[in-house]
Amino acid sequence: MSFRSWRRFFLGAILPQFFATQSAFSAGPALQIRIGQSGTVQINWANDPAAVLESISPLAVPGGWQPVSDQPSLDGGLLSITLRAGDTSRFFRLRTTAGLTTIIETSPVDGEGDVAVTRDTIMRLSSPLAANTILTSDHFYATSGGRKLLTRVELSSDRRTVTLFYLEPIPGSARVSVVLDASEIFDAQGKLLDADGDGAPGGVKRLIFDTLSITPVPQTAVVGRVFAAEQIRIGGNL
């Protein structure tokens, strides 16, 4: 991996307390760790569009680094998120690729369950794609049950968000595999999109999620009445 810089630290819970260690591997943006009250830790880093905060639990899982889904807040040029201790250990790293555009967020996230069958798949990028980019189902597509689903791909006006719209119902209680193949996708600087986040241009991003079960439960029903939030005047009377 040819990362220009990355930082990582370990965050765990020992009784009600946190402990954290941080080590530097090269020059570049660093994570700042502040232990707060009530078992929380605040993570701060410089506002760099190319820097991606990633997490893994446990570290031994190969290829398991994922962008942190928490939306950071911006204050005085620093981005920050606040986390609470859990029952499992988590490792974090701040990764900055060598000027390559990467995927910084996905919806759903990889491995997510109970995803609504009407939910689109979205991938957000660290910088815009080339102005002449044309994306098709050859570049961005989804499969389920060994079949390619009928979809439509759309690139946002700022060319930083790619959305996969489903033109047929996604199967319920099913596993869906989404693929973004960056072998022909270039950013605004003329470089291939680093889809898999390995610090090299190109690659394939794979995202797997499970859809919500829509199987009806026998001998159950939803019964009730719907009321208006405000009174409606009919014929001069309420």
Attribute tags:
238 residues, mainly beta, 0% helix
Helix content: under 10%
Series of H and E elements: EEEEEEEEEEEEEEEEE
**What class do helices, strands and sheet pairing give?**
mainly beta
Q: Name the poorly predicted regions.
A: 1-27
- Widest beta sheet: strand line-up: 2-1-9-5-6
Major sheet description: 5 strands, antiparallel
Rg to the nearest angstrom? Answer: 22 Å
Strand segment count: 17
Detailed description of the structure:
Helix content is 0%, strand content 40%. The chain has strands at residues 5-14, 17-24, 32-35, 40-46, 51-56, 66-67, 73-75, 78-84, 90-96, 103-107, 121-125, 140-144, 147-148, 151-155, 161-166, 175-181, 204-210. The chain contains no helices and 17 strands. The protein is mainly beta. Strands 2-1-9-5-6 form a five-stranded antiparallel sheet, with no helix packed on it. Strands 3-4-8-7 form a four-stranded antiparallel sheet, with no helix packed on it. The chain has a four-stranded antiparallel sheet with strand order 10-11-15-14, with no helix packed on it.
Summarize the structure.
The chain has 238 residues and is mostly beta strands.
Question: What is the topology?
Answer:
Blueprint: E1 5-14, E2 17-24, E3 32-35, E4 40-46, E5 51-56, E6 66-67, E7 73-75, E8 78-84, E9 90-96, E10 103-107, E11 121-125, E12 140-144, E13 147-148, E14 151-155, E15 161-166, E16 175-181, E17 204-210
Antiparallel strand pairs: 1-2, 1-9, 3-4, 4-8, 5-6, 5-9, 7-8, 10-11, 11-15, 12-13, 12-16, 14-15, 16-17
